[in-house]
Amino acid sequence: MGEFGKRALNKARTKLGILQAMLDLIADTSFKEMKIKDIAERVQITEMTFFNYFQTKDDLLKYFMALWSLDQMALQLQEPLEGEAAIRRIFDTTAQQIHEHPQIMVTLISHLASFSNETATVDVEAAERYLRYPNLVDLYAVPIRSGNEILLQHLHELNPAADHMQTLMHLASCFYGDPLVAYTSGKDVQSLYKRSLDLILRDIKQA
Predict the structure, then answer these.
(1) What b/e readout covers 64-80, taking b as 16+ CB neighbours within 10 angstroms?
(2) Where do runs of H (alpha helix) occur along 55-188?
(3) Theoretical Cys-Cys bridge with 105: which of 50, 127, 148, 179, CB 3.0 to 4.6 Å?
(4) What does the DSSP assignment read for 178-202?
(5) Which DSSP state fits 124?
(6) How far, in Å, CA of 48 to CA of 39, rounded?
(7) Does domain 6-206 have CATH number 1.10.357.10?
(8) Where are the domains of the chain?
(9) What pLDDT digit, counting tens, does each position of 110-140 carry?
(10) Is the pLDDT of residue 146 over 60?
C-alpha cells in the first residue's frame, strides 16, 4: 500500500464506487434512462466530479469491460489454466456476473456497435487494481488484454497450428448471444454457455 498515496487511493475508490453505483442502479433502471445525477448522488459526489472520471455515461460500460478483463487476468495469476479449462472458466465466471447483474450484458450488447467506432478506452489505474487485488503485485503494471486476446491465447493452446479466427467468432456469438437468449426466455445462461461450448470445443478437438 505504501507505493500508493492517499490521493491516488481515494480517486481509485471513487472511480470503483461510481461503477458500483451504476451496477446497483441498473437493477431497477435501464441504462438509457439512468441519470448521471443519480449515479453521482449514490456515490456522494457532484455531477462535475463524475466527469473528472468518465467523459460520458457510456464510458462506465467500457470500464466494466476493462475490469472484466482484469478479473480474468487475475484469475490466471491466482490459478493458471490452459486451453479448454481456461475457456470454460471465462464463461463460468461471466455467467456468475450475469446472475448478479442480469441487465449488464443486455446493456453491453445494445451499446457494442457504437463502441466499435470509438478509439478511446477507459484505463484501470494501478491504485484501482490494488484495491481490487491487494496481493497481486504482478497485475498492477501489465497492459489490460481484450477478451479476444485472452480467448485466442487459450485457443492456440488447444491447437497451436490452427487459424482460430472463425472459432473466435463462434465464441463471441456464444458470449453475447446466449445471455440475450437467457434474458428473453428465462433460461439459465450458465447452461446455455455450457451447451454452446460443448459444440464449439468439440469441433476444435476433432479438427
Answers:
(1) bbbbbbbbbbbebeeee
(2) 59-78, 83-100, 102-115, 126-132, 147-158, 165-185
(3) 179
(4) HHHHHHHH---HHHHHHHHHHHHHH
(5) -
(6) 12
(7) yes
(8) 6-206
(9) 887 666 555 456 789 999 999 999 999 999 9
(10) yes
